[in-house]
Amino acid sequence: MPDPTTYGRWLRRAGEKVAGHLDALLWRMVQMRWKVAGVPREVMLVLDSHVAVRYGEKQAGADKGYNPKKPGRRSHHPSSGSTTSAGRTSSSSAP
Question: Kind and range of the H or E element at 25?
Fold first, then answer.
């Protein structure tokens, strides 16, 4: 599985038009699943994040901030989220 920043880079390069198409495709997939399995009554959303240390001055998006392993160093703080309902899990990441 690629690092979450890889997806972020790909989406930024692809542009808003491609991101819009992917969003519409994902929504259609969710609707199709709901038609087959029914709309879930309960959904749990789990949000998480971590600190990714970056070395060098020219790391795109890296900034000085909270970094417990290397205080004062540039880092990324990507967020991720997942949902679960009826024992099934799906996840998503954002740089």
Answer: helix 16-37
Whether this prediction's pTM lies above 0.90 is answered by: no
What are the beta bridge partners of residue 93? Answer: 80
Distances in Å between the Cα of 44 and the Cα atoms of 22, 26, 65, 83 are 23, 19, 30, 5
Task: Spell out the domain ranges in the chain.
Answer: 4-94
- Residue 54: how many other CB atoms lie within 10 Å: 19
Count other C-beta atoms under 10 Å from residue 91's C-beta. 11
Which residue in 59, 67, 68, 56 sits closest to 95, CA to CA? 59
pLDDT at 28: 93
